[in-house]
Amino acid sequence: MNNTESGRNKMEKTMERAGNFLPRVDESAGSPNAVDNRVVSLTAPASIAAEQYRSLYYRLERMRELRPLKVVGVTSAMPGEGKTVTTVNLALAAARANPERRILLIDADLRRGQVAQVLGIRGRPGLAELLSGECEVRDLVRRFHATRMAVITAGATPEEPTQALASARMKQFLKLVRDHFDEVYLDLPPTLPFADASILGHQADGLLMVVRANQSQAKTVNQAVEQLGGAPVIGCVLNGAESSATPYLKDYYQK
């Protein structure tokens, strides 16, 4: 058996144990008070914003009736458009809607991973340490305290993030999470500044492009889609819109 096969078998065994960890809770997974207020799927589940994330999730569910969508990546054209908050809320909406499913949230932004900060959990070890061979999957995966959602953070920033994400080990890892989780959500780096999103985008079943209201420009979004080079973009998510943009919801909740 060569080293590649040996490494694959080892990762497969540790992934199987990680996939079966539920409902065990990792005590390092933080407390509700540490969660960013923008994680409305958890902090304000009855809010208009949380309802929008649920609506987004059920749109994906309808799409799943027509095509495979096990691995969903979320990106944006540029930094600061809200992709991480969108990914976290979407994954939490999935975990709450289907508690029997195994949901995995992966922070694949090795340059500026923010999932750990947003959820108030320990950031290391993470995906970067797995890809460098410093740890195994069982050392990374932890269940978020209030749900059955599993989380893998980004970890430390490697010297060459693009090379790490393009590695055979990353491809092997994504193949294995497909086998051991029902839904996987990837928080990807922004598309235009780096090649990372394009690399991982082609390994996902679908990509969502986060567009920030009054900030993202149509030209920039179009350039980002072009740079993804045929990766399966399945839609855009409008982020940061005023509640007045959806008066029907506002009126309903105020009655």
Produce a short descriptive summary:
Keywords: ATP-binding, Kinase, Nucleotide-binding, Transferase, Tyrosine-protein kinase. This protein is α/β, with parallel strands linked by helices and 255 residues long. It is 41% helix and 14% strand.
| Biggest beta-sheet profile | 7 strands, mixed
What percentage of residues falls in helices of 4 or more residues?
40-55%
Tally of helical segments:
11
Strand content: 5-15%
Overall 3D form: globular
Q: Count the E strands.
A: 7
Low-confidence stretches: 21-28, 248-255
Q: Would you list the SSEs in sequence order as H and E?
A: HHHEHEHHEEHHEHEHEH
Distance between the termini: 67 Å
Q: How many whole angstroms does the radius of gyration measure? A: 18 Å
Q: Looking at this structure, what is the CATH superfamily?
A: P-loop containing nucleotide triphosphate hydrolases
Organism: Melittangium boletus DSM 14713
GO molecular function: ATP binding; protein tyrosine kinase activity
Domain AAA: 70-224
InterPro entries: AAA_dom, Bact_polysacc_biosynth/exp, P-loop_NTPase, Wzc-like_C
Give a description of the structure:
With 255 residues, the chain is of the alpha/beta class. Helices cover 41% and strands 14% of the residues. It is built from 11 helices and 7 strands. Residues 21-28 and 248-255 have low confidence and may be disordered.
